[in-house]
Specification:
Elements: E1 2-4, E2 10-12, E3 14-16, E4 23-28, E5 34-39, E6 43-50, E7 55-62
Parallel strand pairs: 3-7
Antiparallel strand pairs: 1-2, 4-5, 5-6, 6-7
Length: about 60
């Protein structure tokens, strides 16, 4: 993921998805503070930004 910093320069940001299959679908929340990634392993990773570590971290939801 890329973020625009205060100087107007785009910098890459790490996203930890922890998926063991391919990502098949991605959607941002309306407030743009989180996004969800669906995978071929029938899990959904809901990602939120961690200011302390400076990366996006995912929480897994298992789809039955």
């Amino acid at each position: 993921m890329w973020q625009l910093n205060a100087e107007g320069v785009w910098k890459p940001t790490l996203v930890l998805l922890r998926l063991n299959r391919s990502a098949t679908y991605v959607r941002w929340s309306p407030s743009e503070t989180k996004f969800a990634v669906a995978s071929g392993a029938r899990t959904i990773a809901v990602c939120s930004y961690d200011d302390e570590q400076n990366w996006w971290i995912a929480k897994q939801i298992k789809v039955r």
